[in-house]
Every structure is written in C-alpha cells, then in structure tokens.
Amino acid sequence: MTASHPAALLDLEAIRRLRELDPSGGTKLLERVVNAFSNSLDRLLPDLARAREGATPDLAVVRHVSHTLKSSSASLGAMALSARCAEIETMVRDGQVQGLSEQLDAMLQDIQQVRAALAALL
Fold first, then answer.
1. Of the candidates 58, 15, 4, 68, which has an alpha carbon nearest to the alpha carbon of residue 37?
2. CB 89 within 8 A of CB 63
C-alpha cells in the first residue's frame, strides 16, 4: 500500500455498509468501530514488538496478532491490510520465518496508512 487517500486504502462499500447501519449518525457507529480498531491496535502492537525482540520471533504471538488484525481490518474495508495479515498468518502457521520480518514491517506501514485513512473519514 502506498496511497494515503481513503478510497485507495479502504473499500468504500464496507464503509457505506457501516454508515447504513446508523443512517442519521446518531449512534456514531462508524466512529465507535474505528475507535475499537484503534484501541485493538494499541493493545496488539506492543505485544507484536515484544514478540519480535528476541533472536527468534514468538510465532504464537505473531499469529494471534495477524489473525486478529486480519478480520478487524476487513470489517473496516482495509482489504490490502487484511490480505497481508492473512499472508503473515499463513507463513507462521506453515513455520516459514524467512521474509517474515519484512512482511511484519510492511504490515506496520500499512497500519499507519489505514489509521490515517480512517481518521480522514471521521
């Protein structure tokens, strides 16, 4: 992912469906879902950083983080981030660690871009 415009990073159809659930905006559903995603990132990313500290990564933690982010990012329409998380989850499940660090670095960049795109929507 390299674009920072929300339409380039997010499936706007998924955003539209979330907005349809709260047509008046009275319950601030989209804002609450985005905040829940952000809070989840705030909990998971420090775990991921700790899992990467040692000589060999803690694959159970990496798998948990990638699995969790796969579904939560998809629910917000961040399909490229979701796909990257799925790829990381598969790599870990298959015990493939070659290239894992680069994929995790790319996932972290994707997360920053998705966060910015989501913030632009609110």
1. 68
2. yes
